[in-house]
Structure to design on (358 residues):
């Protein structure tokens, strides 16, 4: 049990420090570690957990706690959430303090400008990878494309799209 | 410093708790609304600065922001309160959902719901990525970096760490270099 908790903390702690541009950027790496490297679950189990995490409010890091729950129930969930938020939070706590004294806008601007294309590549690449697993037929691809289009072009609340997906699934359309 | 409403520790916790409980997918607009417009804890400029900092550091941006804001007003304990306020409710709801899932995962209806939920959830991420991509500067180096990262992760399934170790220094050096050349 405690070996599993340690393993969960190490996996998500690493991901925390690699999450350039937010939590969605590390979803494919999470899948690679959890499914291929550790063999904790299958890829489709992972996408089910991912879909559940997206249906809960809050930042998109909850998928980590669901993986933790699957492996080691509540302690696993708590450790995984701490793992994925802890290291980056501690870093940002100290950087925010130093920032008041050592701010260098030009360096910061260069970092932000350089990171922008990387995080877009990571988010879209991750979405592509997940879509390959989650979309089992043409109707699922269609649903995914419609949801992407609406999320991109309108400011409709995401919950409507998730709800529509759930209903389409329940009706057997997907 | 300009005039501020200084939140108490309790207000930090409840403020971020409120964001956690209503925020789906993108909580950033809500955070801005609460911190700047409603509570007046930060000015617009300070918000932009702390957000920028949260974005260049690894980790979930909103979580980083909550830690920076909490820390600014009440040090480590403030950071911890803002952090746990933000994550407490979403964590409990996610736990509730996943325990329902484990209880009823054998039901065909639930499998069907998930079969529809997963593509819709993936679509949301595409949508967010496209929204960001539309705002990306239209220069060849930017597009090239985004495409290389997309291909490496999405099509070639490369591990993230070695990719970042190459791409991050490359991207930041490029951006820095271009910035030096541009007239300001």
């Amino acid at each position: 049990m405690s070996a599993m908790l340690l393993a969960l903390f190490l996996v998500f702690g690493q991901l925390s420090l690699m999450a350039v541009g937010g939590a969605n950027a590390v979803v494919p790496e999470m899948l690679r570690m959890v499914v291929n490297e550790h063999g904790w679950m299958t890829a489709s189990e992972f996408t089910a957990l991912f879909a559940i995490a997206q249906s809960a409010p809050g930042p998109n890091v909850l998928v980590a706690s669901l993986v933790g729950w699957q492996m080691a129930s509540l302690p696993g969930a708590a450790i995984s959430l701490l793992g994925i938020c802890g290291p980056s939070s501690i870093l940002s706590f100290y950087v925010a303090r130093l920032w008041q004294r050592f701010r260098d806008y030009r360096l910061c601007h260069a970092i932000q400008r350089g990171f922008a294309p990387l995080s877009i590549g990571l988010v879209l690449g991750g979405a592509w990878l997940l879509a390959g697993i989650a979309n089992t037929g043409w109707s699922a691809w269609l649903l995914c494309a419609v949801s992407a289009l609406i999320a991109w072009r309108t400011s409709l609340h995401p919950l409507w799209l998730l709800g529509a997906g759930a209903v389409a699934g329940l009706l057997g359309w997907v | 410093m300009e005039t501020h409403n200084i939140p108490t520790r309790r207000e930090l916790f409840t403020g971020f708790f409120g964001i956690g409980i209503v925020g789906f997918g993108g909580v950033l607009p809500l955070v801005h609304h609460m911190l700047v417009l409603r509570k007046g804890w930060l000015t617009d400029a300070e918000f932009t600065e702390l957000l920028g900092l949260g974005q260049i550091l690894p980790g979930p941006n909103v979580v980083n922001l909550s830690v920076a804001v909490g820390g600014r007003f009440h040090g480590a304990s403030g950071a911890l309160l803002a952090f746990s306020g933000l994550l407490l409710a979403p964590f409990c709801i996610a736990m509730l959902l996943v325990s329902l899932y484990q209880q009823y995962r054998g039901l065909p209806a639930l499998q069907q719901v998930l079969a529809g939920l997963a593509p819709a959830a993936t679509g949301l991420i595409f949508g967010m990525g496209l929204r960001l991509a539309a705002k990306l500067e239209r220069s060849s180096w930017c597009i090239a970096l985004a495409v290389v990262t997309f291909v490496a992760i999405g099509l070639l399934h490369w591990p993230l760490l070695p990719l970042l170790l190459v791409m991050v220094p490359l991207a930041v050096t490029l951006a820095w270099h271009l910035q030096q050349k541009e007239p300001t």
Q: What stands out?
A: Residues 1-104 of chain B form one domain. The radius of gyration of chain B is 20 Å. Chain B touches chain A through 98 residues (CB under 8 Å). The first helix of chain B runs from residue 9 to 22.
